[in-house]
Amino acid sequence: MGKMKISFIGAGSMAEAIIGGLIKQKISNCSSIIVTNKQDKQRLKQLASVYGVRTTEDKNVAVKGADVIFLAMKPKDAKDGILAIRPYITGNPLIVSVLAGISCESLENIFQKDIRVIRSMPNTSAAIGLSATAISKGQYATVEDLTLVHSLFSAIGLCTIVEEEQLHAVTGVSGSGPAYIYYIAEAMENAALAQGLKAEVAKQLVFQTLIGAAHMLQETEKDASILRAEVTSPGGTTQCGISILNEQKVSEAMKACIASATKRSREMGEEMAKRMKEKIN
Under a CB-based contact definition with an 8 Å cutoff, are residues 34 and 6 in contact? Predict the structure, then answer.
């Protein structure tokens, strides 16, 4: 896999996270990775300096002979970005999309060929190798393609395979999920300050509590409901706190939160499909 030419169209934080993971896990070597972007030359120099990857402003050089092409530009730049590389694509490369809201079908249409597409939804924890990523395949991609992309994304965390329609729910759960946890961390910190703890103490206790709870969920393999029950003694402090969360309908609020984010993902997908179609027609 190390000799496979992997091209990145887009050089933002997600592209960097994936590049870093591929190199760190020795799934690919830096000389096999080439990166281009719209116009930020300084960003390309930075990636070349930090990771030793090749960079170019020439779209022909970027994609010619590529085995895998990552579409990692901003979704609003997707149309122009794809049209810029389309004339230079040779052979039958595997397209891996990190573009939120853009369907495999939309990508297949704009490439105007039976191109192999794998769509992905990582999250920002990819930056530290702890992404929760889901992938799905377009109509021309193969099971072997899925297996390959699964191994690539496993370099930056957990990767799971879903049907494309489920990516909307994935977006609502794990795509946006880090922000929900940061929201909870912020609320816990503020609550701790209100109880008289110093800011640095509150911060450390909250962060370590979240990290510890996440590790418990992962390593004990017990359901969240079981772990919660084990901490909650009848008539104790935890039960008192949980009773307030129940009174405030926090569980129902989380369901509504994820449902709303999932709905918005579907709406954005429909909007993006229209824009992509308008561009090529």
Answer: yes
Can you tell me which residue has the tokens 């370099």? 155
Q: With contact defined as beta carbons under 8 Å apart, do 95 and 116 qualify?
A: yes
Residue 280 banded pLDDT, cuts 50, 70, 90: low
Please compute, for residue 2, the number of CA atoms within 13 A of its CA located in the half-sphere on the CB side.
Answer: 7
In CATH, what is the architecture of 176-248? Orthogonal Bundle (1.10)
For residues 280 and 109, the answer to whether their CB atoms sit within 8 Å is yes
- CA 92 – CA 71 distance, rounded (Å): 15
Please count the CA atoms within 13 angstroms of the CA of 124 that sit on its side-chain side. 7
pLDDT tens-place string over residues 37-60 = 988 899 999 999 999 999 999 999
Mean pLDDT computed over every residue of the chain: 93
Pick the closest to residue 153 from 9, 22, 246, 53 (CA basis): 22
2: pLDDT strictly greater than 80: no
Distance CA 164, CA 145 (A): 15
Candidates 3.40.50.720, 3.30.70.920, 3.90.550.10, 3.60.20.40; correct CATH number of 6-167?
3.40.50.720
Distance CA 125, CA 133 (A): 10
pLDDT digits (tens, 9 = 90+) for 258-274: 999 999 999 988 988 88
Residues 6+ apart with CB under 8 A from 127: 13, 16, 17
